[in-house]
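Case study B.
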Amino acid sequence: MEPIIEFKNYSFKYNSQVEPTLRDIDLSVYPGEKILIIGPSGSGKSTLANCINGLVPFSYAGESTGELYIGGKEPKDLGIFGLSKMVGTVLQDTDGQFIGLTVAEDIAFVLENDCMEEEKMHRRVDAIADMVDVKNLLHHAPGALSGGQKQRVSMAGVMIDDVDILLFDEPLANLDPATGKRAIALIDSIQKEQNKTILIIEHRLEDALYKDVDRIVVVGDGRIVADMTPDQLLSCDILMKEGIREPLYVTALKHAGCTISEKDRPAHVETMDFSAYKGQVQEWFASAQTPAKGKNSQVALAVEHLDFSYDAKHPILQDIDFSVNKGEMISIVGKNGAGKTTLSSLICGFLQPDKGRILLDGQDIAPLSIKERGEKIGIVMQNPNQMISKAMIYDEVALGLAVRGVSEDEIKERVYETLKICGLYPFRNWPISALSFGQKKRVTIASILVMNPQIMILDEPTAGQDYRHYTEIMEFLKRVNEEFGTTIIMITHDMHLMLEYTDRAIVIADGQMIADDTPANILTNGQIADRAYLKQTSLYEMAEKCGIPSPSAFVECFINYERTVR
Amino acid sequence: MAKLFSYEEKGTWMEDLCGVTKLIFFLAWTITCMLTYDTRVLAIMLATSLILFKLSKTSWEQVGSVFKVILVFMIINILAIFIFAPGQGTKIYGTEHILYSLGGRWVVTQEQLFYELNVVLKYFTIVPAVFMFIITTNPSELAASLNKLGVSYNIGYAMAIALRYIPDVQDDFHKIKNAQEARGIEMSGKAKLMDRIKNVSAIIFPLIFTSMDRIDTVSNAMELRGYGKNKKRTWYMGRKLAKADYAVMIVTLVVMVIALVVTYHDGSRFYNPFI
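Model:
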């Protein structure tokens, strides 16, 4: 069989860069294959994808050497439009890629550009909408849909063209765990029913492996460092070396000192054979110690019976009631659109509650303005571009102090100190535009931290970050929490984050608080995980298969171990 | 939640009309209104305009704040007319009925008041038509109709996509404003005017950067899905002109002709009640 995509000794360098982004790529993909491409940020995996869909070199110019064939032809002969007939791309930012005002128009966009007659177009749109189950949404605005629905609409928009290759650029990045699982299942069924060639770019390996893939291609520093089956990959140590997070059960097995063998099929926790490891895992669990935690019982923030709605018929939040102790690091979790961000907006005073109180150090903060609350409660938004308003790092971090009339000497001192903590001191005179996304994120955290808030709220602090940057940001937050005693509240749907870095999680589902417990207990409780669109951790399944009586204690043990080795 | 000044589906017969029909109505209506100073014509047009506005089910939240801004401009406009040309009414109508004098050349006359009344009427006649046009026209459908009339689809699409992004940019604006306020940048009336102007940059820059991000993503998405491949394109929202469209166009043109005939039959575009 002829490969549908073939790279031969291919290298590519962007015109704007000195070093090539891709080097000596050799890769063949055959029709009907399903391939997962993983690699840390900046490894070149997105460039690899852009070479296939034609954004490289048609939108991002550069020089290439070696050969590349898509469907047996060279991209330069096909052009970006020729390639778009063969390769359909679902971009990472589902919000940004919607073009049409309604779902139907967005799905029809390709057909419009192909000059298809209206009637035929309407029929095609109906058919494809049926396939991905968005038929009842055709006349909605894409922006008003939930994360999962958005993804299905963008899939419909590329599949309608009857392309042979479907390329998914980080399909899980903006989805809560359960919706992500469904997206992977949908991709899987499309591949099986229509025999498409599927390429998935992801760094969330464990979630992406929810359904089988034929091969995993690991990209590191512009080269392909591995091209093997999931079972092979998980039984060697390439992932660790490349800074990609292994599935949790694999990490746990390694902690227990096991050597994973390919023949036990480690690709899925459900089908893996644990019999060879059972003894070692039990021993490790028995020997592990759970340190007692010193608890500070002084309440920093108390939320009492909070209700909120935009109109009386549709309550957004109902009877939210919890408190956060001084120096705690907690997470607020739940599915996309459950009301997590609304809750933080209420705490910061962007919105006013219909009922209930918010107390800071025992004082009702209802009379305080946004600005006044901002002095005690700092908020870091998900997208750093939404906060950065100065060209230079120093000015950006100094902004909050400058508008409060702090003297220049003091500003300088405090800014420098904060920059040092955030690891940004060497860059203090750099323009912000020269920073990476993760560094920008740190700048926004620094610009809040410099004001010395008692409480910091972070909205999805690690969204879109690979494992290395994720660890960097989280370790940094942990240090802030420990050294300054800053209370940290994180809004997230990243289960690793809540499991590894927070002592307690508040779970919100459909506007109601359904749990306030340790992450280990929440993620081993199927009922809560289901309602909140979380996913039971694979450690739970592993614990059961290894005959450990208390899965949640096992999860605790794993987390503690992780914390000590990190 | 009603978004300010954007298309909203309400299921009125006006929405069922083609974008082109509404564009023609809008242009004819505005031109007629600009040309005529005939108070009788203006009065009838105003009444029609208000009835149509009612039928379009436009809600006050959608247009209220824009209307207030227009109102301010109108007041400035009529005051300016009086300050700079207090004798305009007399010049037009040929008579002078003095009500009282404010000193110098500023004399309030019946003629001047009547003239300025006509100006106000014009405002009130045109403004609802503008609102209706924007609120009841689906931007994609308008782009489609314009393209069918021979306008390049790039222009139509640029317009449609701008409208598509209005709500997103509004959202961004609110998020950024809140975040900056929380950092201590005062945006409300409490700050001094100069400070406020300076502080606006704290919203504008992030807004520009996030919008640039959006542009980058959406232009990639459009290209990947074949936009600009052909000289022509078809439209999912395209609509053929129906009987109702022709009817509305004919009625519009007939009304325009009648209005202009009534206005100009005596050689002047002013209706003169003073002789």
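Chain B touches chain A through 53 residues (CB under 8 Å). The remaining cases will be described in the next quarterly update.
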